User: What shape does this take?
Amino acid sequence: DRDVTGVQTCALPISTAVLAPYRPAMLTVTVPCPVLRAAAARPGPSTVLATGGSTDTGAGVLVRVDTGRVVVLVNARLVAEGPVPGDGAGTRAGAEPCGLDVFADQHGVHVSLNGTAHDLAGEPVPEVAAFRTDLDPASAVGLAASARTVNPFDTSPTALKKVLVALQLLAAATALWLLVRWYGPGLPERAGVGLW
Assistant: This one.
């Protein structure tokens, strides 16, 4: 398994985490309340996180804040929408929940926005071409994304495979021993003919 984590802010050059396949085995995204509030304080729409390719409406995760509302798209489908809670939400006991969590694996996608859960059973893991945000580094503190890929060539043998390999090696060694024993160095003399 391989893990890729991070978020690239627009204050720095965008980097691309090249994943093959583009759909990782598992994707986790965490956007805390202060990050949502920082995006809401910016003029105009702000992309909090985009994982898709060249467009923000593709088969990835898109979290966008515009006019005080959070919109979450997964695989180009609107999954969750709600207001950005005000100051104090999610920070004191009894306060309304605040923030966004996305978890996707082979079973589906789970999105929790401000404490409201949205389950998409069977939904494929969103694509990841890069982790991008419009927020500056100070505003993006706490924003996290993690993708786990699986290497199909990474295998580990089972106990049965180990036993079968050992039996094959034993059979090959026994055959070699029998050949040397049966046909050993004296074979040409026993047969009465030369080798050539």
In short: The longest helix spans residues 159-183. Helices lie at 33-41, 159-183, 187-191.
